[in-house]
Amino acid sequence: MKTNKQNNNSKEVLITYGNDDSINVNIFNNKILMEIVGSFDNNLKELEKISGSKIFFRGNSIAIKGDKYANEKVKDAIEYLINRFRIDKKIDKDDIITSLNKEISINYSDDDSININIFNNKILMEIVGEFDKNLKEMERFTGTKIYFRGSSIVIKGKKAENERVKNAIEYLIGRFINEKKMI
Question: Which of 68, 76, 84, 117 is most buried, taking the most CB atoms under 10 A from its CB?
């Protein structure tokens, strides 16, 4: 076994790296675990199909086996999904697809603003819309200020509203990727 890594809430998640590049994710919060796994293990099957890694589930343990890079990607996706569940109390199919998408990065600032970098230009243009139409609609609906520069979308406003806009953007990215099969 390689090093152990514990997530922010060490009572809920333990990540262990094996010598064969496998990764074992133990989730001790059963509500989170069941959402990550999905009914009939469908979320894990979707992660497996998209990533190419083999994923095994037993008890509170999710074992990821295969290519080192793909395994790490699945582990990151599971951590992302845990955070999504903590925020939304649910996980959708679009969340599964978005979790494996390395076309975006999300950064939170101390002033509650959120910076979303979208590295795929097709996705970026789809989210922004012609003449920033989609962003302006989100601004109008939520009362936030949304700035678009280069590959970056910056959301400024109240924390809860910023989170709503970020969730909407992530949903749109997931939907776009799913429809276009861009992963």
Answer: 84
